[in-house]
Structure to design on (526 residues):
């Protein structure tokens, strides 16, 4: 579907396969042994995380095990497909930390063949192998392969959908169009950012149907537009829940930021996070994407000019989807998180691979080795980083808390990652609702928390513990807290001050700045 950017373009434009012997002169081929070694290393890094589950992961596990899934998700803000699959997985293999994370690792590894197929279709055998290596070693992909969330599934469906879309574009048979419709539906039921991706694809198809996109069959474009609409029809059953979530949940846990700040955070996250090595890798990858966008080889030299033909579609679709998501997020006051980019990750992988594909000789090997080695290094550090102190806190409670003791969580966002490991027979209250700590109800979250009275809540907890459920003695009050959560400003400190004014406070677990989700544990004995 693409126009070649120059007569000497090394990338095909006719969607036909290219044999290894068709490689341009001077382009180093990556042996399959190198590809295999990188894939094996990437697979290992996708299953090595041993930290306790943090909030989002523990929520995923708890929600996937409820019978009234739609009601639970109306309090949470996501579509249901991943939770259904995770629930089936848990039924088969259990809900251990490593077990529930393996599901995402399998989704991530299953994406690698589609990176190869799409790289070969857009370019050649060399580009296909580069794409596999890029995805296998990409810190962003490894990070979410190690997390019990829907992002690895979203990337798998997006990559598979892109490949199936190109199949249907080439030959729009009923079977191929049906496959596109199915993946469209599955994407919508996996993550709401799929709406912006599909909206961008639909706009691109309308341009093609109007003969504004070179090399795109107008009949195929019209059929694919209809296919996307058909794929969206089953999602209409979920639209009432979506509208209810949009009206009542949102993203109260963070403030919207400037688009430029969001973009920088995304670049760093693609490189592995906020560590300096990860930031440097993110900037290098951004540079390679620009080389893929505007670079071409002519007479053996790398030259820069207009947008490269092979990069046109992925750049246009990803850019428009980001723009749509940004505009709609701004209009609704919701927050952009880099993890949402999982839906658009296939386009980034191909654009980055195109940039590497344009390099030759020593420069290629140096940059290639740096991307892979630094990517694996930052991923290894991230995989070994402790995400939550929930297990540490729960172990203390399991050892020391007694029946009738009152455990208070502030904020409630610490509840899922701690209660998952809690076996002590305590009375558990989250501030300010006194609900159970296994889930977080995000409905009208900010209004509820800002209007809550920590002094009155603490007095009620103290009075409850003073009733004494073990003979005539009072029971201990425990406080699990953190002070950096939005909508709780001053609330958890108010609980601590009130408890400490009535009973002697003992600090048992101190929140660590080295942990992604720190938690502090206090005991207030009778």
């Amino acid at each position: 579907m693409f126009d070649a950017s120059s007569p000497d373009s090394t990338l095909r434009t006719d969607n036909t396969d290219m044999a290894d012997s068709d490689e341009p002169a001077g382009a180093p081929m990556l042996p399959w042994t190198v590809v295999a070694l990188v894939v094996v290393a990437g697979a290992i890094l996708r299953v090595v995380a041993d930290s306790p589950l943090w909030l989002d992961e523990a929520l995923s596990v708890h929600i996937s095990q409820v019978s009234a899934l739609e009601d639970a998700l109306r309090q949470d803000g996501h579509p249901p497909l991943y939770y259904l699959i995770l629930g089936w997985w848990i039924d088969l293999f259990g809900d251990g930390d490593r077990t529930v994370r393996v599901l995402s690792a399998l989704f991530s590894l299953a994406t690698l063949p589609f990176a190869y197929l799409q790289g070969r279709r857009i370019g050649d055998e060399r580009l296909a192998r580069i794409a596999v290596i890029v995805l296998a070693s990409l810190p962003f992909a490894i990070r979410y392969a190690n997390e019990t969330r829907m992002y690895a599934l979203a990337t798998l469906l997006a990559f598979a959908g892109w490949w199936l879309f190109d199949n249907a574009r080439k030959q729009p048979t009923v079977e191929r169009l049906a496959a596109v419709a199915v993946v469209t539906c599955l994407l919508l039921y996996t993550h709401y950012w799929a709406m912006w991706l599909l909206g961008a694809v639909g706009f691109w198809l309308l341009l093609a149907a109007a003969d504004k996109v070179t090399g795109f069959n107008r009949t195929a474009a019209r059929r694919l537009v209809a296919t996307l609409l058909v794929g969206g029809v089953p999602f209409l059953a979920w639209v009432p829940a979506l509208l209810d979530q949009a009206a009542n949940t949102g993203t109260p846990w963070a403030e919207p930021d400037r688009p430029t700040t969001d973009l920088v955070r995304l670049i760093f996250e693609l490189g592995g996070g906020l560590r300096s090595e990860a930031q440097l890798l993110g900037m290098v990858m951004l540079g390679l994407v620009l080389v893929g966008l505007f670079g071409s080889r002519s007479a053996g030299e790398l030259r820069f000019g207009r947008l490269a033909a092979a990069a046109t579609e992925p750049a246009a679709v990803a850019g428009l989807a980001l723009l749509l998501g940004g505009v709609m997020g701004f209009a609704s006051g919701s927050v952009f998180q880099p993890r949402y980019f999982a839906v658009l990750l296939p386009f980034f992988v191909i654009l980055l691979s195109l940039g590497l594909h344009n390099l030759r000789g020593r420069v290629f090997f140096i940059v290639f080795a740096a991307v892979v080695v630094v990517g694996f290094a930052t991923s290894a550090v991230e995989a070994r980083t402790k995400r939550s102190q929930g297990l540490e806190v729960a172990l203390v409670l399991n050892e020391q808390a007694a029946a009738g003791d009152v455990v208070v969580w502030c904020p409630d966002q610490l509840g899922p990652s701690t209660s998952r490991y809690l076996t002590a027979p305590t009375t558990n209250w989250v501030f300010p609702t006194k609900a159970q700590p296994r889930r977080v109800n995000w409905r009208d979250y900010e209004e509820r928390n800002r209007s809550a009275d920590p002094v009155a809540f603490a007095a009620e907890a103290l009075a409850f513990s003073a009733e004494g459920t073990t003979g005539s003695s009072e029971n201990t009050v425990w406080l699990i807290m953190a002070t950096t959560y939005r909508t709780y400003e001053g609330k958890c400190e108010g609980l601590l001050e009130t408890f400490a004014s009535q009973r002697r406070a003992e600090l048992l677990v101190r929140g660590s700045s080295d942990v992604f989700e720190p938690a502090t544990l206090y005991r207030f004995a009778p």
Remarks:
- Residues 1-23 have pLDDT under 50 and may be disordered.
- Residues 390-524 form one domain.
- The chain has two domains: 20-383, 390-524.
